[in-house]
Amino acid sequence: MGSKNTGSASRKARIEEMRRAEKSRERRNRILTITASVVIVGGLVVGGTVLIRSQSGDSDSASSDSKNSSGKFVTGKDGVKTWSTKLTQKHVNGDVKYPMNPPVGGDHNQVWMNCNGDVYTKAIKNVNAVHSLEHGAVWVTYNSKASDADVKALAAKVKKTPYSLMSPVEDQKDPIMLSAWGKQRTVTSASDPNVDKFFSEFVQGKQTPEPGAACTNGLSQ
Q1: CATH 3.40.30 corresponds to the domain 61-202
Q2: Which residues contact 150 (CB under 8 A, 6 or more apart)?
Q3: Residue 66 DSSP one-character state
Q4: Using one digit for the tens of pLDDT, what is the confidence trace for 134-187?
Q5: Radius of gyration in angstroms for the set of CA atoms belonging to the chain, rounded to a whole number
Q6: pTM over 0.85, yes/no
Q7: To pair with 40 at 20 to 30 A between CA atoms, which of 48, 50, 55, 188?
């Protein structure tokens, strides 16, 4: 009789121990499930925030470039105009309303125009050309008032100058203009000595936000 009672008590003890172990496993599983859920939710929140910020940084150009509108050109004794405020450098998907023409900086497309002495005979997009300026290029622009001789001479200079590009900008103020990041000037002709001075100072000059960045493998017409 005593042995039966002893055996029964022993079974009850083992069953109770198994129940406690099962409850302990259930608690651990609940904790792990809750922890995993928190991590997943946190990841989704962070990912969503990053996505929203990324989309806001790569969308509307007019709003993202608004800081540049508060600046203005200040003309130096050498005739070179310098933009008075720091120019923004975000990558955007759409067009940008630049406060100057041709633009000398600001938000731009993530793809640059090839600027390894590239001469474009048709207008190019400002958002791509500005990226070239960020890489340290000088951009030569002209309109229909520029003489054919000057256009040909400037094209010849650009073609032999790495980190430069040239294209027509019909609605610019003057017949021939030179632009670099944050810098701009008008020249009277291709033989104007200020052409060489501008190239010498601003091709990969101190104003360059990303010196040495590529001027090839970008966009071409």
Answers
A1: yes
A2: 142, 175, 176, 189, 190
A3: G
A4: 999 999 999 999 999 999 999 999 999 999 999 999 999 999 999 999 999 999
A5: 33
A6: no
A7: 55
